[in-house]
Amino acid sequence: MATEIMNNEVRVGENEESEASNGIEKLEISNGTDEVSENSSSMQKDEDGVTAEVAKKKKKKNKSKKKKEPLKQTDPPSIPVVELFPSREFPEGEIQQYKDDNLWRTTSEEKRDLERFEKPKYNAVRQAAEVHRQVRKYIRSILKPGMLMTDLCETLENTVRKLISENGLQAGIAFPTGCSLNWVAAHWTPNSGDKTVLEYDDVMKLDFGTHIDGNIVDCAFTVAFNPMYDPLLEASREATNTGIKEAGIDVRLCDIGAAIQEVMESYEVEINGKVFQVKSIRNLNGHSIGPYQIHAGKSVPIVKGGEQTKMEEGEFYAIETFASTGKGYVREDLECSHYMKNFDAGHIPLRLPRAKQLLATINKNFSTLAFCRRYLDRLGETKYLMALKNLCDVGIVQPYPPLCDIKGSYVSQFEHTILLRPTCKEVISRGDDY
């Protein structure tokens, strides 16, 4: 500021002091105004900066408050189950405590340690169970008379493939969808071209399986639109629940069968004016389940008698019951649709090149999991019936024809998969639907 005043005095001259003084005043006023405007503009900038910063902080707070809502399953289901559980921890099934001499297991630290060691396997099978629950819930909502059975099975199986993120032998369908009708108890699924339609008076057993890394969930239920069949369905449902309740470590398989039969045969059903006592089908059983092995060697009878073998810690079981209005006995009948490579089949030389090719397809896509002819068609296999028969004849593949009541009577089925954990019994497939 001082340098500017001195320069102004030199320009004005010595004899014009008043003008110089006026000039000084003007300069002082002018420069004072500039300084104020500069200060005010800088203050404005500071205020704007502070305002912007505050706004940013508020935005950040608002963003942090807004948590991402968990994904919800669509209708129809299309989101893989792994995406619905970002933690990759899947829900437990229904927990039941052991009875009597095994009550101590609940609080045993040693048994808890064993369970922690097995947690990855438990989590895998729980994922398969969650897929099963969501699929069967959806299928129940769309079932109605007039549906083509082929369409029903393909809808169900394609939904499983989506929800389980099908990946070769690591994740997928465990066995073909059984949709056996009326007197057919099990092992029926439509072959390609079948035109069977679901009717109002049908009793349908819907039996399907899912797996993760060979850990199989086997679960079934019966559908009947006509309320006349309700007592028949109730008989097999309650018998299955009884079998689950009685199952446990060191329990004899024959004792479970006796308890199931007692409950089953306490029911009667009136069909078209005629009363029938409900009977357990004596040559059908539940079974133990192993990795990639739907029938792992032990059978759970549904009548008294049978094996004295005991259940053991860590085993998986399918507790399933079949209620009949007939003689309580089934036999193989009708066209075969279900097949499975024998779990213990060693190397057997094959002469037919086509049989070798088909076996390679089976090994790659199914290994020892069950499959059906529709699955081979889906993979692009054609003209394979002779090759398939050859694989069955030499004992590499086992056919599983439909099992039919010998009297042509109605049959109902219910089934759950249970795990005999070291500390408790987990009904892995249990849901709120039944």
TrEMBL record:
Q: Where is the Peptidase M24 domain?
A: 124-328
Which transformation does this protein catalyse, written as a reaction? Release of N-terminal amino acids, preferentially methionine, from peptides and arylamides
EC number assigned by the record: 3.4.11.18
Compartments where located: Cytoplasm
One term of GO molecular function: metal ion binding
Summarize where a divalent metal cation 1 binds, as residue positions.
D207, D218, E415
**Polar residues bias located where?**
30-43
Q: Which NCBIfam families match?
A: met_pdase_II
The family database entries (HAMAP family) matched by this protein are listed as: MetAP_2_euk (MF_03175)
**In its UniProt entry, what is this protein called?**
Methionine aminopeptidase 2
Q: Which organism is it from?
A: Gossypium stocksii
Please name the taxonomic classification of the source.
Answer: Eukaryota, Viridiplantae, Streptophyta, Embryophyta, Tracheophyta
